[in-house]
Design goal:
Layout lengths: L10 H15 L8 H14 L3 E4 L22 E5 L2 E8 L4 H12 L6 E6 L8 E2 L2 E7 L6
Parallel strand pairs: 3-4, 4-6
Antiparallel strand pairs: 1-2, 2-3, 5-6
Length: about 140
């Protein structure tokens, strides 16, 4: 039996997402190599004072490091916003459906309260994914 998603209705999460999006869209992150972009995003988050972890393993109920599933969900960043966690995934270029499926997997985790995608792929997300706030940050915006 699958666990119900943690529905996030806290307006502070949307406010935090909006602020992060605005700040990130003013940055000129490199867009040729995903690992380099992730390193630059990490530097930016540190400079801005965010509390986060890199490549954080997400577990469903009953899973752990001792009993992980075959392909664990590991988003690029898990940002703490008070008592809420926001996933930030970086994708330079990939198929839209593949990106969306990955975002949905992250949103299904009870420990995730919102999802954000920093991407160079032209795409949108619905306002909510798995009943959690979702937002796209355009990698190219900072270069305009």
């Amino acid at each position: 039996m699958s666990e119900m998603p943690n529905i996030c209705t806290d307006p502070a999460v949307l406010e935090a997402m909006g602020k992060l999006k605005k700040k990130m869209e003013r940055q000129r992150f490199p867009n040729m190599n995903e690992k380099v972009t992730q390193a630059e995003v990490e530097t930016f988050l540190k400079k801005e004072g965010y509390t986060f972890s890199r490549e954080h393993r997400l577990y469903m109920q009953g899973e752990s490091d001792e009993a992980p599933k075959a392909n664990p969900d590991i988003p690029d960043f898990l940002i703490q916003c008070g008592e809420h966690s926001i996933v930030l995934e970086v994708k330079l270029r990939a198929r839209r459906m593949r990106i969306y499926d990955q975002i949905v997997r992250y949103a299904r985790h009870p420990s995730v309260h919102a999802v954000m995608l920093l991407t160079g792929t032209s795409m949108t997300l619905p306002l909510k994914v798995e009943q959690k706030p979702a937002m796209v940050i355009s990698l190219g915006q900072g270069w305009l």
